[in-house]
Design a protein that fits this description.
The complex is a heterotrimer.
Chain A: H1 4-9, H2 12-21, E1 43-46, H3 50-60, E2 66-67, E3 76-82, H4 93-102, E4 106-116, H5 125-144, E5 150-156, H6 165-175, E6 186-189, E7 208-212, H7 217-228, E8 232-237, H8 242-252, E9 255-258, H9 266-278, E10 281-286, H10 301-325, E11 328-337, H11 341-344, H12 350-372, E12 376-382, H13 388-391, H14 395-403, H15 413-423, E13 435-438
Parallel strand pairs in A: 1-2, 1-3, 3-4, 4-5, 5-6, 7-8, 7-10, 8-9, 10-11, 11-12, 12-13
Helix pairs in contact in A: 7-8, 7-15, 9-10, 10-12
Chain B: E1 19-26, E2 30-31, H1 41-56, E3 65-68, H2 80-87, E4 96-98, H3 105-119, E5 124-131, H4 142-153, H5 157-164, H6 188-198, H7 203-222, H8 248-252, E6 256-258, E7 268-269, E8 277-287, H9 288-293, E9 300-309, H10 322-334, E10 343-346, H11 351-362, H12 364-369, H13 391-394, H14 401-420, E11 424-432, E12 436-444
Parallel strand pairs in B: 3-4, 3-5, 10-11
Antiparallel strand pairs in B: 1-8, 1-9, 2-8, 5-8, 6-7, 9-12, 11-12
Helix pairs in contact in B: 1-2, 3-14, 4-5, 6-11
Chain C: E1 2-6, H1 12-27, E2 40-47, H2 51-60, H3 71-86, E3 99-107, E4 117-129, E5 132-143, E6 146-158, E7 183-187, H4 191-199, H5 204-207, H6 209-214, H7 224-235, E8 243-249, E9 257-268, E10 271-281, E11 287-295
Parallel strand pairs in C: 1-2
Antiparallel strand pairs in C: 2-4, 3-6, 3-8, 4-5, 5-6, 7-9, 8-11, 9-10, 10-11
Helix pairs in contact in C: 1-3, 2-4, 3-7
Classes of the chains: A alpha/beta, B alpha+beta, C alpha+beta.
Chain lengths: 446, 445, 298
């Protein structure tokens, strides 16, 4: 579904008119292109601790111009605020205000990333206050950004240094065009084993990935993106969607597996297919999902049950079967599709929101089991994404939903796929049990 | 392995190797003038190939050879299979050829390509077939054709005008194809009606077979049997001819459509005859080495095949009775009896066809006089016959039926062999226009 | 019998005109009606067959275009000579409206289309019939000095009773019960015209409903030789010369028509011996013709 408004306000006379009228001015987002630089300009690394020094050095290795001090009038590609050593709220002022003074110089599609530590219940109150303060400051800053720029944070887990590979993996994702529609979010990076790819444009080289619901929309985009990033794909969808599934598979050299994921042996069938055709499986993307919207007052058993069965119960069963099958290779990664509806709720979607909230709970509780297997399990919660499904929404609802985010536009299936691909990569090995929102910082459930 | 990086086959022809069925794909079969009305043979064959490519990850692969055909074929489709290959996701460097043996086309492509694999000429192949009764070719009349050809040869204006003057109004009426046998003018249904009457096959027996076909097919869909044998097309995900809820009572209410002027009681209805159908199928076959080195499954081996034909023109034998001769010949060559088979896939052109074949094999007289056997071949265990439905329920797009049968049987054999940890064997039998029949044996182990 | 050598093959259309004017004159009571058959044979030498004429004939019969001549085609080649006998002023029966009852042919060897033929025709066997008067028209075709084809056609002049001939008794009618068919012919209204086109026999009763009505028929009827030839084409792959065939016509086939046909082959010592055939109206169950083809070999 084309966002005509977005096209219109970014062209010629309408652009200036819209500006004068104070209409929303969604920007064309900076999205990833293989071979493109990580950032559209130099990166300013703020922070005085050792973490900042380490990161500044690493960033030089990414072919970026790294600045440690503000150079007036210099166009910046991004700003990294290294706040991992915050001990008291007062220490936040200097980096925040310095960053603020550079905001006008931030290039379209620029990136701001904070590096901080979690405010746990056990530390010093002043330290916890300072750490939690980063949260509010970053989220507000993200609202303030224009021109398709985004602001996100990395939260370092227990014993994780700013220079750890897991942090670098997350940082590269958040700085790059891959995170175009991720805004106002924090990624908790733990101590799981992560490794950076030899070729940053082929982070999934040699991996085998199964994607459910791959026949169309977000699932097709995920399959294509994982393929672009180097993975061999097993594309799964219900038999009835087989024609589109075959087209997707043939575009990306995948094998098509027509399968009802609610079948009792769906996981075993996927495992058998992967074992026979690919000698193993590295990545599982649980994307397949359905909606059967009704106000709870009008909800019937069939609508409730089918949504729970497809969106949640099937994933629990398949995860179990896959873990038990022996088909998973070292460092298996599962990425499940949640939804902002599962975080904020949505009128008429009690069943759907229940299933998607359930996913968030599922990945959190499954993290340990996958960590034991050397891997990870995470969820991606898309906000308003331009798909055939959202194209069927009433016009006004759709327009409101589009503009109801900091980026003032809907995301694309590709934006979700990029987040999935990142979480499926070994660079994201430090992230486990998390749910990453891809919503353009939607006000819904903020 | 390969003699050079570009070699197509990998073995000298002096040692035969096995040819195995790796898998199959078909689009759901649609009753004529239904979901596929706008689709041509080439469109449907391409869709069947693309589904197969997707299932087995054959994108841009150079397959040894692709053979397929259509019974009702436009003259523009002189290179139907090759054109479908070019339009598919296969490597455009994949060679292809068309084959036509009436309703046995699909099975014969499997047999011919399997033989090439056995000889080591090719390592992999796709066999298939397609037919459209909706998009059937319509030819100009013989009169118009003759005039047009003569016009083409005419050199002067005078000659051209003289030629054109030969045109008669009736020459402008086109000729649509029909299923009548050229030498008898009788349709296939009427031929079968004669045979059905000759073998005293009852209406009830035919309706029962049809009911079983529909029930078996519906049950097969229900348990997902076709999930890896079919790719939906044009919004159709199941054979549109399937009537899962049909009953003997409903079938008994249908009026006879064939054999109404034959003197005997007419027993053949739309319920126990196959309708005109559109559809396509494709089967991936290869050497065992090919399957292994490409991480592909092996469902069953193509063991042997036999073709037969009968003299039906003056009624010496029934038009569709050739399989009754081909099967005993094949069994004799392989030293097998019906008891050695786990499954029988007998193409249901009409319920009467299957029942006449089985009656013939049980008939002492037929087996002695026509087959020269001491005793009858015996009865076929009906619980092993067309257990996942057959043409009465799926419909019968002529050239596409062979591919459906081979892929279906190969999968059934693999499942049974895996479940019971023993080799299994199945028989395929297809009758064809022109008094022909082709039969084949598949084995899994 | 005396011999008349015709200089060239007579033109059928002219013969039909002669027949029509003779009929008209007889109706007006002009001219002397003979009561004996003329004791004369008409012969045409050096008859050449244009290959495209044979091809057209073979195609219309759904047969194979071969270099040897179909048996019924030879009949049509000879027919103008037969007609020239029947349109002689001294021929005792009126040609127009005459009914073709039966045909008997011995086809003795394959005839190549390029062989020059000698065609001889004469009449014999004038006798009474329960519905009029019957006559045999004999034809002999020679090639290379030997007889290759000989045929006898039985014709009936309805309601014509010649002095000195006893009226035959009407044979007992037997009910016709259709057997199992082996073929079905769908004959369109143009079937008569099409056969006229390849045989040269433009008898108005075959051409159109209008021309047939002028001769007292409700619609045009299929040519008897067309029906015979369809059968012979169906056995041409098995029946090789020398063979004999006969056809007896029971009722005309009014066009358009769907004719059910049964052809039954018999073998002796594993080779073809004979084919018996029957044709009837598929829906009317009315018998149109019966006949047989028999080998003359051995």
């Amino acid at each position: 579904m084309a966002d005509r408004y977005l096209d219109l306000v970014n062209a010629g006379p309408v652009k200036s008119l819209a500006k004068k009228l104070g209409l929303p001015q969604p920007a064309v987002l900076r999205r990833y292109r293989p071979g493109a630089p990580v950032l559209p300009g130099p990166v300013l690394v703020l922070g005085s601790g050792s973490g900042a020094d380490v990161l500044a050095k690493e960033l030089l290795g990414w072919d970026l111009d790294v600045r440690r001090h503000v150079a007036p009038k210099e166009r910046l590609g991004g700003i990294v605020l290294v706040l991992d050593e915050l001990a008291a709220p007062e220490e936040l002022a200097d980096p925040m205000l310095t960053a603020g003074s550079s905001l006008r110089d931030l290039a379209p599609g620029g990136r701001i990333v904070t590096i901080s530590r979690p405010a746990t219940g056990t530390g010093q109150p002043a330290q916890a206050a300072a750490r939690q303060a980063v949260d509010g400051a970053l989220r507000s800053l993200a609202h303030e950004l224009r021109g398709g720029a985004t602001g996100n944070g990395i939260v370092l887990g227990e014993g994780v240094d700013a220079g750890a590979p897991a942090v670098l993996g997350a940082l590269r994702f958040l700085l790059s065009g891959r995170s175009a529609y991720v805004n106002g979010q924090f990624l908790l990076v733990g101590s799981g084993v992560a490794s950076l790819p030899a070729n940053p444009d082929r982070p999934l080289a040699g991996k085998v990935a199964v994607v459910t619901g791959a026949a169309r929309g977000i699932g097709a985009a995920i399959a294509e993106t994982l393929h672009r990033d180097g993975a061999r794909i097993i594309a799964v969808d219900v038999p009835a969607a087989g024609e589109q599934l075959a087209q997707v598979a043939n575009r990306i050299g995948a094998t098509a597996l027509q399968l009802d994921i609610t079948a009792a042996d769906a996981g075993a069938k996927i495992a058998a297919h992967a074992a026979e055709r690919n000698h193993g499986l590295d990545i599982v993307v649980h994307n397949a999902g359905i909606t059967r919207d009704k106000l709870l007052a009008n909800m019937d058993q069939a609508k409730w049950d089918s949504v729970i069965a497809v969106n949640l119960a099937s994933q629990l069963r398949m995860n179990e079967q896959l873990l038990a099958s022996g088909v998973l290779r070292e460092a298996p990664r599962v990425v499940s599709l949640a939804s902002t509806s599962g975080i904020a709720g949505n009128r008429g979607q009690t069943n759907y929101a229940a299933s998607k909230a359930g996913i968030i709970g599922m990945v959190r509780a499954s993290a340990a089991a996958f960590a034991d297997a050397g891997g990870s399990i995470n969820a991606v919660a898309p906000g308003f994404i331009e798909t055939a499904m959202t194209a069927r929404m009433p016009f006004v609802t759709r327009e409101v939903a589009r503009r109801l985010s900091s980026l003032q536009q809907g995301g694309r299936p590709l934006d979700v796929a990029e987040a999935v691909s990142f979480l499926a990569s070994d660079a994201a090995g430090g992230i486990n049990g998390q749910t990453l929102r891809v919503c353009g910082q939607s006000m819904v459930g903020a | 392995m390969a003699a050079s990086p570009d070699a197509t086959g990998t073995r000298p022809a002096n040692v035969l190797r096995k040819a195995v069925v790796i898998g199959g794909n078909r689009i759901p079969f649609a009753r004529a003038n239904g979901a596929y009305t706008q689709a041509s043979n080439q469109d449907m064959l391409t869709a069947a190939l693309d589904g197969l490519v997707a299932r087995f990850g054959l994108q841009d692969e150079r397959i040894g050879e692709v053979a397929a055909g259509a019974v009702l074929k436009h003259s523009r489709d002189f290179n139907l299979t090759r054109e479908a290959v070019i339009g598919s996701a296969l490597s455009p460097e994949t060679p292809a050829y068309d084959l036509q043996q009436a309703c046995a086309t699909g099975l014969e492509t499997v047999v011919g390509l399997a033989n090439k694999i056995k000889l080591g000429q090719i390592d992999s192949a796709i066999a298939g077939g397609v037919d459209s009764a909706s998009d059937a070719p319509i030819a100009v009349s013989e009169g118009l054709r003759a005039v047009l050809l003569e016009l083409h040869r005419a050199k002067t204006v005078q000659q051209k005008l003289t030629t054109l003057a030969k045109l008669r109004p009736k020459d402008l009426a086109p000729n649509a194809p029909d299923t009548a046998e050229p030498r008898t003018g009788l349709s296939m249904g009427e031929h079968q009606a004669l045979t059905t009457a000759a073998w005293n096959v009852t209406r009830e027996a035919q309706d029962e077979l049809s009911l079983a076909s529909h029930r078996n097919l519906a049950a097969a869909y229900e348990r997902g049997f076709f999930d890896d044998l079919m790719t939906p097309y044009r919004g159709l995900a199941k054979d549109s001819n399937l009537r899962a809820d049909t009953t003997l009572e409903k079938l008994a209410k249908l009026q006879p459509v064939f054999g109404k002027n034959l003197g005997a009681e007419a027993t053949m209805t739309a319920g126990n005859s196959t309708p005109l159908t559109d559809g396509a199928s494709a089967v991936l076959i290869g050497s065992e080495e090919y399957a292994r080195s490409n991480d592909l499954p092996v469902l069953a081996e193509v063991v042997d095949s036999e073709a037969a034909a009968v003299d039906f023109v003056h009624g010496k034998e029934g038009l569709l009775m050739a399989p009754a001769y081909a099967v005993p010949r094949l069994l004799a060559r392989q030293g097998l009896t019906f008891a050695d088979f786990d499954f029988f896939e007998i193409h249901e052109a009409f319920a009467g066809t299957v029942l006449c074949h089985m009656a013939a094999w049980e008939s002492e007289e037929f087996c002695r006089n026509k087959l020269g056997l001491q005793k009858p071949l015996g009865a076929i265990d009906r619980t092993r016959l067309n257990v996942n439905g057959s043409s009465l329920a799926t419909g019968h797009p002529f050239a596409a039926t062979g591919g459906r049968l081979v892929a279906t049987l190969a999968k059934m054999l693999r499942e049974k062999t895996d479940a019971e940890s023993r080799p299994t064997r199945g028989l395929i039998s297809v009758c064809a226009a022109g008094g022909m029949g082709v039969v084949a044996i598949l084995e899994a182990n | 019998m005396s011999e008349v050598i015709l200089g060239e093959m007579p033109t059928l259309s002219r013969l039909y005109l002669t027949a029509a004017s003779t009929a008209a004159r007889h109706k007006l009571g002009v001219g002397q009606q003979a009561d004996q058959l003329p004791a004369v044979r008409h012969t045409v030498d050096g008859v050449h067959i244009a290959p495209e004429r044979v091809s057209g004939f073979q195609q219309l019969m759904h047969g194979t275009v071969r270099d040897t001549l179909p048996s019924v085609f030879l009949h049509s080649v000879a027919f103008p000579v037969v007609m020239s006998v029947m349109t002689r002023p001294d021929f005792p029966l009126p040609l127009l409206g005459m009914v073709h009852l039966a045909n008997r042919v011995n086809h003795l060897r394959p005839v190549h289309f390029a062989e020059p033929l000698t065609v001889t025709a004469w009449a014999e066997g004038l006798r009474g019939h329960h519905a009029g008067t019957q006559v045999e028209l004999h034809t002999r075709i020679e090639a290379g000095g030997e007889t290759v084809w000989e045929g006898v056609s039985d014709y009936l002049a309805k309601a014509v009773y010649l002095p000195g001939l006893d009226k035959a008794l009407r044979p007992e009618r037997t009910d016709f019960i259709p057997p199992q068919p082996t073929a079905r012919w769908r004959l369109g209204p143009e079937a008569g015209r099409e056969y006229a086109g390849v045989s040269g026999d433009f008898n108005p009763i075959h051409l159109s409903a209008v021309s047939a009505k002028m001769l007292g028929l409700k619609r045009s009827i299929a040519h008897g030789m067309y029906l015979a030839s369809r059968v012979l084409t169906s056995v041409e792959a098995t029946a090789s010369e020398p063979f004999a065939w006969r056809i007896d016509f029971a009722a005309p086939v009014f066009l358009p028509a769907t004719v059910a046909v049964r052809i039954h082959d018999t073998e002796r010592d594993g080779s073809w011996e004979a084919s018996e055939f029957t044709g009837w109206g598929e829906r009317s169950h009315r018998l149109h013709f019966t006949g047989s083809v028999n080998t003359l070999a051995g």
